[in-house]
């Protein structure tokens, strides 16, 4: 199982572990991933995803899984999350693009 968030595409980063004597050795910073069950109002079912705690906070801030997925860009979502996004758009209807007043 890859260590990558399914909603924000956060993955491991590489850096240095610095000792007291200032010796630098390579190490990995892993994302804080948790298995979470979200409730999709549009689909009427539960969805289990492996997401970072930062993504969990973003989902709550945006008003739930459905609203978050509708706003999210398709290139950062995992294949499972992209399928969910398409299913929600199909069920709810695609949101109209917002035109800016000039």
TrEMBL record:
SUPFAM superfamilies recorded: L28p-like (SSF143800)
Record-linked InterPro entries: Ribosomal_bL28, Ribosomal_bL28/bL31-like_sf, Ribosomal_bL28_bact-type, Ribosomal_bL28_sf
Pfam families named among the record's database cross-references: Ribosomal_L28
Domain of life where this protein originates: Bacteria
Sorted UniProt keywords: Ribonucleoprotein, Ribosomal protein
GO CC term (a single one): cytosolic large ribosomal subunit
Entry keyword annotation includes NAD: no
Claim: Ribosomal protein is one of the keywords in the record: yes
Position of the signal peptide: none
Entry's Gene Ontology BP terms: translation
Chain segments carrying region Disordered: 1-20
HAMAP family the UniProt entry points to: Ribosomal_bL28
Family in the record: Belongs to the bacterial ribosomal protein bL28 family.
Protein name: Large ribosomal subunit protein bL28
């Amino acid at each position: 199982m890859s260590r990558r968030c399914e909603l924000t595409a956060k993955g491991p980063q590489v850096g240095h572990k610095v000792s007291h004597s200032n010796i630098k050795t390579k190490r990995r910073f892993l994302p804080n991933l948790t298995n979470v069950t979200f409730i999709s109002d549009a689909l009427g079912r539960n969805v289990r995803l492996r997401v970072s705690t930062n993504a969990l906070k973003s989902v709550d801030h945006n008003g739930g899984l459905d609203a978050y997925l509708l706003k999210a860009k398709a290139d950062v979502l995992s294949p499972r999350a992209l399928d969910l996004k398409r299913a929600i758009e199909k069920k709810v209807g695609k949101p109209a693009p917002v035109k800016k007043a000039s």
